[in-house]
């Protein structure tokens, strides 16, 4: 029973990372800063279309960064889903294999 209790902090940390990643995903996909504009103190809300937004360098740079992060996530996700990595993590981490997978995925998304 005691060794099983030692797994609780690792599993809880993995859950917290995954939950935080979900919150960041919702915030990221809201697109409010991109299309809705953030009004300055008392200023009007500025709206712009997609074509105008995609021609703005201040939007293209973060968009390219986000695409790079997406590729990082896809690469990490695909690598950890291979049988070789699954066998290695099962051998060295045992029942924490899934928690390690979720934690690595959350960390790749939090970068």
From TrEMBL:
Keyword set includes Phosphoprotein: no
Membrane association type: Multi-pass membrane protein
Xref: InterPro entries: Nurim-like
UniProt-recorded name of the protein: Nurim
CC per GO annotation: nuclear inner membrane
Organismal lineage: Eukaryota, Metazoa, Chordata, Craniata, Vertebrata
Organism of this sequence: Daubentonia madagascariensis
Main location: nucleus
Family statement drawn from the similarity comment of this UniProt entry: Belongs to the nurim family.
């Amino acid at each position: 029973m005691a060794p099983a209790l030692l797994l609780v902090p690792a599993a809880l940390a993995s859950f917290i990372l995954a939950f935080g990643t979900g919150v960041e995903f919702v915030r990221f996909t809201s697109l409010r800063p991109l299309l809705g504009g953030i009004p300055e103190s008392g200023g009007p809300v500025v709206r712009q279309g997609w074509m105008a937004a995609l021609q703005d360098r201040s939007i293209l740079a973060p968009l390219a960064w986000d695409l790079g992060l997406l590729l990082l996530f896809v690469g990490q996700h695909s690598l950890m889903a291979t049988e070789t990595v699954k066998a290695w993590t099962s051998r060295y981490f045992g029942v924490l294999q899934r928690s390690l997978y979720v934690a690595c995925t959350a960390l790749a998304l939090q970068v």
